[in-house]
Every structure is written in C-alpha cells, then in structure tokens.
Amino acid sequence: MNEDNSASFKELLKGFESNRVFAHTHPYDLYRQWLEAVWALLNMPSSPQGFKDTLARHTFEQGQELGRLFNLYLLAVEELPFRDVLGTIFMRLDIKSAQSGQFFSPYPIAEMMARMQYDRDSFQAAVRERGTVSVCDPAVGSGVMLLAFAKVVHEAFGREGTDRLRLYGSDIDPRCVNMCRIQLRMNGLDGF
Questions:
Q1: pLDDT for 40-67, tens place per residue?
Q2: What is the C-alpha separation between 160 and 137, in angstroms, rounded?
C-alpha cells in the first residue's frame, strides 16, 4: 500500500492543507508547530517542562486539533509501517524546499537503495561480531533511507533484526530532525 491509498494519510494531509481550527495559519507553520508538539509529547519523560511549554503556546481547541492530527498520524503509521509519512506530507505541502536546494528521496528509490546495500550474510556476520549494525545518513531529511533499510531488515528478520539496528542521522534543518526522530520512534526504531 502507498500513501495515496491510505485513508488516514489522506485525512492527515487534508488536516494540514485546510484546517478549520488553524484557519489563519499557513499549512507550513501548522506542520512545524505540530512536529514540535508531537516531539514534545514523545519526549515528555525526558523533558516534562518542554511538553508543558509547548502545550502552553496553544489554546485548548488547538491542542485538541493537534491531538486529532497525531491520532491520524498513528493510524497512517499502522497502515504504512516503515514508510516516510512525514516526509511525503512535507513535500506535498509545497513548502518551497526545492527552491532552497532541499530534495527528499522518494520512498521507492530509498527502498531500492536499501535493497542494493543490504546483504543477509553481511548483516548476520556484523551482528555476530559486534551485536549490532549501524546505519548513518548524514543528510537524513525525514529519515526515509533509515526507514527503508529498517523495512528491508524487518522483512528478513522481523523485530529481532530491527532491534539490532543502530540508526543515526543528522541534518541542518531542525524540522527534518524532528520528522526523522518522530518517524523512528513511531516505528520502534530508536530503542537503544
């Protein structure tokens, strides 16, 4: 299944493109605020004050709407595990990232590259030798390459394989860092 066939993905995208509660907010700004709120929620055990501060910036109705969008995201992740849900939304919102030289890899290309790099025997040998396999993306964007590699490993070994992954990424854009860490967390890929 791809994003275009997912009802929850379509509803989530629509929630950013035309939102009644955030009617006077540009879709980009809503998306950025939502990413910050989601990460604050997911990171609450480490930073309860950060969560309180983020929540305090919104009215009760806005907080409910951010929660509704988060629920739609959860449904999309269930329907589309290891897919680049947030990166796809980011690019569809047409935030003019291409004008500033920012291009996200399409998921089918990322998956093809992951399949080209993955070798079952090498993976097993690395796990035997070191206990884990590290993958690093120095321009991580929304984490699409890491997600695609995790999908390939999951197909081969299930959760036992993905538990052996140590995924690392960096990016100059804080929005991208948020997208990546949210997607890794929601796909159970940041447990180490």
A1: 999 999 999 999 999 999 999 999 999 9
A2: 22
| CB of 36 closer than 8 Å to CB of 55 | no
Convert the pLDDT of each residue in 60-76 to its tens digit. 999 999 999 999 999 99
d(CA 22, CA 40): 19
Tell me the torsion sign for CA atoms 146, 88, 82, 29.
positive
Q: Give SS3 for 133.
A: strand
The DSSP secondary-structure symbol of 167 reads E
Closest to 184 in 3D by CA, of 37, 82, 107: 82
**133-149 burial code (b ≥16 CB/10 A, e <16):** bebebeebbbbbbbbbb
Q: What's the predicted TM-score (pTM) here?
A: 0.91
Question: Cα 2 to the chain's mean position, in Å?
Answer: 15
**Rounded distance between C-alpha atoms, residue 155 and residue 176, angstroms:** 26
pLDDT band at residue 1 using 50, 70 and 90 as cut-offs: confident
User: Cα separation of 139 and 173, whole Å?
Assistant: 9
Integer CA distances (angstroms), 134 to 75, 145, 168, in order: 29, 13, 7
Helix (H) or strand (E) run with residue 62 in it: helix 60-79
